[in-house]
């Protein structure tokens, strides 16, 4: 299989609603602890309760919504949850990366190179949406190449959350990000799993820092003027 960035398929109504709510929750537009009523959300989005129920079920699987006695509440504590998400991601992705290095041929890494090339093309055409898509597929490729089905399934519930975090925080300097990802892939292809995992740690710590800054900016921008 060749891993190339492509335009996302049109989202079903439940997925559209879950995306909008996910953005609102992570950005702080909907505060932690807010009760999410199916009826109110159905009115807000002008849909039946079915798509809303699908959206809330998805957000619950991501840990962004908490079920308390059959009532659903937002469960996102800002920076504390960012720390949890990135520590979990680093653990999962480090394991995926080690297994991918063990199992992947040069041809397999050539396919991942195509994603870096797609990022470079998106940077050249100033297309941040295509850039972010290729960026996420770059990281997801480690799970595919790990040949560990359950590890890939463990990552899947959080992928949408990280897509939002990436969109909120990705650097405006796409050319520099391409260089960073190319350097990362070069380390991976060299075949030293310890060096690759160390590079992943540095990569994710920088990403987490940008996310923390973006969420703090978002929180500050919603505070009432003094």
From TrEMBL:
Stored CDD domains: WHTH_GntR
**Pfam families (UniProt xref):** FCD, GntR
Question: Which residues belong to any copy of the HTH gntR-type domain?
Answer: 11-77
Keyword Disulfide bond on this protein? no
Sorted keywords for this record are: DNA-binding, Transcription, Transcription regulation
Listed name of the protein: HTH gntR-type domain-containing protein
**PROSITE patterns, per the entry:** HTH_GNTR
Which ranges of the sequence are coiled-coil? none
């Amino acid at each position: 299989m060749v891993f190339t960035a492509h335009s996302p398929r049109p989202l079903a109504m439940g997925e559209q609603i879950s995306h909008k709510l996910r953005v609102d929750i992570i950005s702080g537009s909907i505060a932690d602890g807010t009760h999410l009523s199916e009826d109110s959300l159905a009115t807000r989005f002008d849909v039946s309760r079915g798509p809303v129920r699908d959206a809330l079920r998805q957000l619950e699987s991501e840990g962004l919504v908490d079920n308390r006695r059959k009532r659903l509440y937002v469960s996102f504590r800002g920076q504390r949850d960012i720390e949890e998400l990135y520590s979990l991601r680093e653990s999962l992705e480090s394991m995926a990366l080690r297994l991918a290095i063990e199992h992947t041929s040069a041809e397999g890494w050539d396919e991942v190179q195509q994603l870096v090339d797609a990022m470079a093309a998106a940077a050249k055409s100033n297309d941040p949406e295509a850039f972010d898509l290729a960026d996420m597929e770059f990281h997801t490729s480690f799970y595919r190449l790990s040949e560990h089905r359950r590890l890939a399934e463990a990552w899947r519930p959080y992928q949408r959350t990280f897509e939002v975090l990436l969109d909120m925080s990705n650097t405006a300097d796409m050319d520099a990000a391409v260089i960073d990802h190319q350097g990362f892939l070069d380390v991976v292809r060299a075949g030293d799993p310890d060096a690759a995992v160390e590079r992943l740690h540095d990569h994710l710590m920088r990403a987490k820092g940008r996310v923390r800054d973006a969420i703090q900016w978002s929180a500050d921008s919603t505070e009432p003027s003094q």
